[in-house]
Amino acid sequence: MATPKYHRILLKLSGEALMGEGKYGIDTNVLAQIASEVKDVVDAGVEVALVIGGGNIFRGVSGAAKGMDRSSADYMGMLATVINSLALQDALEKIDVSTRVQSAIEMRQVAEPYIRRRASRHLEKHRVVIFAAGTGNPFFTTDTAAALRAMEIRADVMLKATKVDGVYTADPVKDPSARRYATLSYMDVLQKELKVMDATAVSLCMDNDMPLVVFDLTTPGNVMRVVMGEDVGTLVGKIPTKIA
């Protein structure tokens, strides 16, 4: 088998990715598929950390938009990410993948507190580590939490899983002429206001030279393809912008 391009990765999943065709909640079939893909990568010798959003259950921004206090809404969103993290942990352990959930909000009955050195030690022992509850602070997205954790654990790359096969010049659903970027510079993402991640997360990656791959999670085997270095999705980094 070929050698993986990356030794340690952080995979960012949206909460919506767990819904499948539903309008909210968790689709257990989708959960099992994601767990299977993660297991394949772990079996290839790659150290895997994950961050999952909570939008399938509750989004802090939408709660605030409806009149709720933003801090309270964001804390509710963080708790939603804990629910998703525990669900994925269960799915992974059912297929014999050793997994730990670390929460930025302390809740010792269900998850370990986030400790960077402990997380790194788990990864060295080839346990999957799921970082829950964002950064533990309101006004920060799970994208920013993922970028922060990627830096802290010294990941080789951050993988942003989406429902499209990369970043496009326009919305490919609305514009048939839209073309996929093969590569993008951080500055182009910020200046063109491309919806890759929020500006704070992109800036954090740029300041610390953390490469980011945006790819389609719905295509089976794509996580492994990215890890093996295949031309999948869009690579964002300190590189020239190129159209695929």
Task: Describe the structure in brief.
This protein is an alpha/beta fold. Helix content is 36%, strand content 19%. It has a single domain (8-243), classed as Acetylglutamate kinase-like (Carbamate kinase, 3-Layer(aba) Sandwich), CATH 3.40.1160.
Structural overview:
- The protein is an alpha/beta fold.
- It has one domain (8-243): Carbamate kinase (3-Layer(aba) Sandwich).
- The protein has helices at 28-43, 60-65, 70-94, 116-124, 142-152, 186-191, 199-207, 222-227; strands at 8-13, 47-52, 99-103, 112-113, 128-132, 157-162, 181-185, 212-216, 234-237, 242-243.
- A 10-stranded mixed β-sheet has the order 4-3-5-2-1-6-8-9-7-10, with helices on both faces.
- Strand 1 (8-13), helix 1 and strand 2 form a beta-alpha-beta unit.
- The radius of gyration is 17 Å and the shape is globular.
- The model has no long low-confidence stretch (mean pLDDT 94).
What topology emerges from the helices and strands here?
Elements: E1 8-13, H1 28-43, E2 47-52, H2 60-65, H3 70-94, E3 99-103, E4 112-113, H4 116-124, E5 128-132, H5 142-152, E6 157-162, E7 181-185, H6 186-191, H7 199-207, E8 212-216, H8 222-227, E9 234-237, E10 242-243
Parallel strand pairs: 1-2, 1-6, 2-5, 3-4, 3-5, 6-8, 7-9
Antiparallel strand pairs: 7-10, 8-9
